[in-house]
Design goal:
The protein has a domain of 60 residues. It is 27% helix and 18% strand. The protein is built from three helices and three strands, in the order E-H-E-H-H-E.
Length: 89
């Protein structure tokens, strides 16, 4: 089945909460290559809507709200707060 975008566009999803991730999900369902970018120190606000999330990565991965809004996306976590490390050491 052909989709509207058929992998021809790439969307960088830096949204949090509910509305932004749902729009990214819609792009993914239409065939866009959606990459969710998250901060390694603060999880998506949608993940915090499940009991016990409070920064626990294992709980966030099982959170239905988080998984529903982010299905079909690739993901990457960036740590922009820490000092850069030397790749050669």
């Amino acid at each position: 089945m052909n989709s509207i975008f058929d992998g021809k566009i790439r969307v960088l999803d830096i949204s949090m909460g509910w509305a932004g991730p749902l729009v990214g999900q819609m792009f993914a369902e239409m065939g866009a290559d959606v990459i969710k970018i998250e901060d390694s120190h603060h999880f998506d606000g949608g993940a915090g809507r499940c009991d016990g999330a409070a920064g626990d990565a294992a709980v966030v991965e099982r959170a239905s709200v988080f998984n529903t809004a982010n299905r079909g996306k690739r993901g990457v976590t960036l740590d922009l707060a820490s000092a850069p490390r030397n790749r050669n050491s």
